[in-house]
Amino acid sequence: MYSLAGLRSTLAWLLLLACLSPTAVQSAGAGDLVVNTDRGPVRGMLGGGVRQFKGIPYAAPPVGEHRWASPLPAAHWQDTLDATHFRDACPQVVRYGVTEASTVEDCLYLNVAVPATSARGGKPRAVLVWIYGGAFVGGGSNLYPMDYLARTGDLVVVTLNYRIGALGFLAHPAFERARSGGYALEDQRAALRWVKRNIAAFGGDPRNVTIAGESAGAASVCMHLYAPDESRGLFQRAIIQSAGCSRALRTVADAEEVGIDMAQRLGCTDPKTALACLRTAPVPALLEAQTAIAATRMLAFAPSVGSKTLPRQPREALQSGRFVHVPILNGGNRDEMRLYVAYDVVAGRAVTADNYAAALQAIYGANAPQVLEHYPLSAYSSPATALGSVMSDFQPSGILANCAFQEAGRLAARFVPVYEYEFTDRDAPPVMDDPGFELGAVHSAELPYEFPGFSNKSVFDGPPLKPASQRLSVQMVRYWAAFARTGRPIVAGQPKWPRWRSPRDVLRLHPDAVAVWDADAIHQCSFWRSKYPAELGN
Question: Which of 102, 141, 180, 215 is catalytic?
């Protein structure tokens, strides 16, 4: 029971708070909902045990003459900004019938989530900045509920939008050569600079920032690692989820061929006026041209090498040690590519016993007979499961393969601490409707374990995890959070996660069975190294 004196004291304190200015409220404590940034004050909301601040501009709108230009600072504002709603994702089309479209070009906003409780010992919290995936042409920060990761991990979590597709990765001879093809990465770096300047006001430690991402977001993390002159000092740790970051990228010169093609499709053929013409093209027309080009060119809109934004090939950076030297947590999912086989099956391109060998031939060429010998149909429940499993081990033209994950970790581990994992929960929530074969731990299946409700939709309508998977979720977040705080994923009472020194040091993330295993043997990487030594070493 509260005493009468206590109630009077509480009422007096609440009355005092009501009279304080926004600046005074900002300094009052952990429960504050108004924070001053370097551009102006923002008002957030309390929910899910965290304070959330959504839709904070970190750069000026990339429209008009700022389209295909490096991001500029956001304008100052005087009145307190309502930061209680996510802003729209950057322009994109619906993909695989499961994502959401957008034509909103004013999209450079970020979001912050902070536990509502006071930080331990009054110290600033470690910061985790999440970069979304989406094959470089989709995704948005509004797809990721932040409260669980912030609350369970006791972290300050930041999510951000960045330009994608043609608006983020297009290269063209008329663009600034130093940044051509790299405006998406420049957006991400602008957001990281915002974090360095502002995150202390939210209770975060600007000297302890982890960048993390999945798929294209994970590849983006790698691109920041490989450009030390541009990104050193912006982060202190890196988490890479599902990106084989030692694979070769196209050059800016190669990417400019795509830019010229797009310009022609949009009627911008005169080199003297191409830039101005491209900058006035309507967003729907840009997306239509982008979709047509991507239909015949794999990853037509993706990072390219040879600019100041990204100066060297990934393997060159890793072999020479010319990358940002920070601890790395790296890995992926056991059945990554079954997802894309499923998309093909749903689209009517079935994998059968009759065409399985032909499918291998199309992917592996002269090595196909040996691949068929190592991956016979008799070892799998269906031809589609077999093909997806083979590709999840290794594929020469893609980055979503477990042997490729291990290769990047192996190279980086010569210079920095690396912690390798593999997510293997085949009872994860399905990421698509039943394709008629077992999906397993496919690409993106781990996201609901970090962001419960994740569904590729802004409504957060993904199904809940089963009890064993929920326990794994807590374990994963605690590992991730420990790594973000200290650079070592060491958690009291949980299985030890060793620093990577061999393929036997990979932590298997499996419900009620987290343990180290030999990922090299599981995915037959010795076989793949013998066939593809240039990609996997020898």
Answer: 215
Q: Count Cβ atoms below 10 Å from residue 513 Cβ, excluding itself.
A: 13
433/455 Cα distance (integer angstroms): 12
10 Å CB burial of residue 156 (0-12, 13-18, 19+) is buried
Q: Which CATH architecture has domain 8-72+80-326+394-511+518-536?
A: 3-Layer(aba) Sandwich (3.40)
Tell me the C-alpha distance between 6 and 86, whole Å: 39
Sequence-ordered alpha helix ranges (H) in 268-374? 274-280, 283-294, 314-320, 338-346, 356-364, 368-374
Catalytic annotation on 443? yes
Provide the 10 A C-beta neighbour count for residue 291.
15
pLDDT for the residue 10: 35
Q: Are 219 and 60 in contact (CB under 8 A)?
A: no
Residue whose token pair is 């190294």: 529
Place of tokens 């599981």: 522
* Cα→Cα distances 418→131, 463, 508, Å: 20, 32, 15
Report the C-alpha gap between 26 and 38 in whole angstroms.
13
What does the alpha-carbon distance between residue 183 and residue 71 come to, in Å, rounded to a whole number? Answer: 8
Render pLDDT for 428-475 as a digit per residue (tens, 0 to 9). Answer: 999 999 999 999 999 999 999 999 999 999 999 999 999 999 999 999
Catalytic residue, chosen from 443, 446, 450, 523, is 443
Concerning whether 336 is annotated as a catalytic residue, the answer is yes
Q: Which residues make beta-bridge pairs with 160? A: 110
β-bridge pairing 237-241 and 204-214:
parallel
List, as own/partner pairs, every contact residues 463-472 make where C-beta atoms lie below 8 angstroms and the sequence separation is at least 24, other chains included: 463/429, 463/430, 464/429, 465/428, 465/429, 466/427, 468/427, 468/511, 468/512, 469/425, 469/427, 469/428, 469/429, 469/511, 471/511, 471/512, 472/425, 472/509, 472/510, 472/511, 472/512, 472/514
Catalytic residue among 336, 446, 450, 535: 336
Is 27 a residue whose pLDDT tops 60? no
Q: Is 215 a catalytic residue?
A: yes
Comparing CA positions, the residue from 157, 212, 148 lying closest to residue 450 is 148
Give the pLDDT confidence of 407-425 residue by residue, as tens digits: 999 999 999 999 999 999 9
Nearest CA to 375 out of 256, 388, 403, 260 is that of: 388
Domains in the chain: boundaries: 8-72+80-326+394-511+518-536, 346-388
